[in-house]
Amino acid sequence: MKIGIVGFGNFAQFLAKAFIRQGHTLCATSRSDYSLHCSELGIHFFRDVTALFDADNDVVLISTSILSLSEVLRSLPLDRLKRPVLFVDVLSVKEYPRQALLEVLPEESDILCTHPMFGPQGAKDGWRGHNFMYEKVRIRNEGTCSNFLQIFASEGCTMLEMSCEEHDKLAAKTQFITHTVGRTLGELEITSTPIDTKSFQTLLQTKETMMRNSFDLFYGLFIHNRFARQELENLENALRKVKETLIQKANEEKEKTQC
């Protein structure tokens, strides 16, 4: 397939290597100049998104940040499309890009919302066993859609078809909470000690992994997942409950010793 990538940051570069290895033809565009890096990978880099649309791709992959999605979609030269193509997003939230793509894209364009739930750090040894979520939002050309999904299936991903709504409900309880806990541990400035337990080392790894991600990603997970705010409140309430339970137990023990 011919795949055009809009937004060629670290994650898109990570995906592109597998696409190339499987024999697909790639071109890319991005705000930053990745022409040298693309040249090394065998990818045609366009500074102008219009040139990418003129390249007549089978698939247009949207790999922008969550916060810049709306602006990027508004800037797409959709009038330059020569034929119906498959638009795919790989954002970490799903209801938001689903709605945005439906609002912006022409009716004849196919839409596949996906979330490869892994990245360059966690999947540096391969994608096998890692989850790949997708929803066929609007698909007429099943062949192109199947060919794109096969990229991930052939790499050994666990393919999970579910609605964007269900994804965001689950992701708020898992991905967003993990980012929140990692950021909270970062605020605590926890560091390794001579008496670390394995559990504490896991917490350290969580903190370090989450803090390597941009704050914009964390904010995007919060502001564009309608279930995240409730999970944040649940976390606050849970911490308050644990604190209250400890204090209550301490007071009960104190009363026993005074009797």
Q: Mind explaining what this structure looks like?
A:
The chain is 52% helix and 15% strand. With 259 residues, the protein is an alpha/beta fold. It has an eight-stranded mixed beta sheet, sandwiched between helices. The longest helix has 31 residues, at 228-258. The radius of gyration is 22 Å and the shape is elongated. One of its GO terms (biological process) is tyrosine biosynthetic process. Keywords: Coiled coil, Oxidoreductase. Residues 1-259 form the Prephenate/arogenate dehydrogenase domain.
Put the structure in a nutshell:
Residues 1-259 form the Prephenate/arogenate dehydrogenase domain. By secondary structure, this protein is of the alpha/beta class.
Total strands: the figure is 8
Q: What would CATH call the class of the largest domain?
A: Alpha Beta
Query: What can be said about the biggest beta sheet?
Result: 8 strands, mixed
Could you tell me the strand content as a percent range? 15-25%
The structural class is alpha/beta
Rounded to the nearest angstrom, the radius of gyration is 22 Å
Domain Prephenate/arogenate dehydrogenase: 1-259
Protein name: Prephenate/arogenate dehydrogenase domain-containing protein
Coiled coil: 225-255
GO molecular function: arogenate dehydrogenase (NADP+) activity; NAD+ binding; prephenate dehydrogenase (NAD+) activity; prephenate dehydrogenase (NADP+) activity
